[in-house]
Specification:
Layout lengths: L9 H12 L9 H10 L6 H9 L2 H11 L13 H8 L1 H16 L5 H23 L6 H10 L2 H9 L3 H4 L3 H5 L1 H8 L3 H11 L4 H8 L26 H19 L7 H12 L3 H7 L1
Helix pairs in contact: 2-3, 2-6, 3-5, 4-6, 5-6, 6-8, 7-8, 7-15, 8-14, 9-13, 13-14, 14-15, 15-16
């Protein structure tokens, strides 16, 4: 994979070159995903064509139906077939969720540490979608879910590439501060996750949120996000999605790791302002 394939800014391109020198590689997209992307560019493209292709992969089909029927979507009726799921989502949203599902499949068979990692990511994805929906940040449920699922996907890449990186994840403290864990190995899982998002052609909003999950500073000119601040400090777009992810990580830390130590304190004030959330409301969340 060439750096130009990722359309990176100069700083990210230089960091990517350092990672490549360490032997780190971004996983290739599965054949079925490439077929789906090719199909989506056909002039006579129809949802039923996409559904037929997805049905050829039982694991992808099952996981896609699981996500569509998850609480993040709040559906009253259960969607029990792929064609209905594609019609509900629309072709582009269905394609993006296929990307999210298939990334995990790249790392099969999973080690115990990576099983924990993907289970953790799935929960954070649900929480991110729930916060984004409740606080009206102006993004779709599937974008919020996908962002939560991919936010730390660089960990899975580094676990396969850097000796000792995965073994050290057996210590629960590593999950509480992945940035400190990265520093021990001279890598950055956030940057690697951003590179995966670019190479796998995720929506630019998702890629920007993954890159700026520790603090939103603004997006590339080609990002489709539109920010809007209302009377109570609510925000739409990438800023709101970053804050939703940050709160989801806090909730996960307190609910599942029984820890009040997290990276939340560094972004607390900006996240609450962006979400239009008071300390009293935060106390009901986490």
């Amino acid at each position: 994979m060439r750096p130009e394939d990722l359309d990176l800014d100069p700083a990210a391109a230089a960091q990517w070159q350092l990672l490549r020198d360490k032997g780190i590689a971004i996983p290739e997209q599965p054949k079925v995903l490439l077929q789906i992307q090719k199909l989506s560019q056909a002039p006579d493209y129809q949802p039923r064509h996409l559904a037929a292709l997805i049905r050829q992969d039982p694991s992808l089909s099952a996981r896609l139906l699981y996500i569509v029927n998850s609480p993040a979507y709040g559906l009253v009726d259960v969607i029990d077939n792929i064609e209905n799921a594609v019609l509900l989502l629309g072709c582009e949203r269905a394609l993006n969720l296929c990307r999210a599902v298939l990334l995990r499949e790249v790392f099969v068979p999973l080690t115990p540490a990576l099983e924990i990692f993907w289970d953790r990511s799935a929960i954070i994805a649900e929480l991110t979608a729930a916060v984004a929906y409740r606080q009206h940040v102006g993004v779709s449920s599937d974008l919020a879910y996908m962002t939560g699922l991919f936010h730390a996907c660089g960990v899975a890449v580094l676990a396969k590439a850097i000796p000792g990186y995965e073994t050290a994840l057996a210590d629960e403290a590593a999950w509480l501060n992945l940035a400190a864990h990265d520093r021990k190995f001279g890598v950055d899982h956030v940057l690697v996750g951003y590179l995966v998002c670019r190479y796998w052609r995720l929506p630019e909003q998702a890629a920007q949120v993954v890159r700026q999950q520790h603090g939103y500073v603004g997006c590339r000119p080609d990002c489709s996000c539109r920010e809007r601040r209302g009377g109570e400090g609510a925000a739409n777009g990438c800023a709101g999605l970053v804050a939703s992810l940050q709160l989801a990580l806090l909730i996960y830390s307190r609910m599942f790791l029984q820890s009040r130590d997290s990276e939340w304190e560094a972004t607390r004030a900006s996240a609450l302002a962006t979400l239009g959330m008071s300390e009293e409301v935060l106390a009901r969340f986490a």
